[in-house]
Amino acid sequence: MAFIYNLFKRSSTFTLSILAATFFFERGFDMIGDTIFDRLNEGKLWKHIKQQYEEQ
After folding, report:
1. pLDDT surpasses 90 at 3
2. What residue ranges carry the coiled-coil annotation (predicted)?
3. Residues 6, 22: Cα–Cα separation, whole Å
């Protein structure tokens, strides 16, 4: 418990840790959202059907 108290004793470290956590949460949430979207739309997106329209 003392580690957390010492880590967040100064407001600058508290703010920096909040910003870092927000950044990593946003990146992870975005990746999960994209994965779910791709799975729900399998076969409908351009990256899934472009081989049907490309010239050989």
Report:
1. no
2. none
3. 21
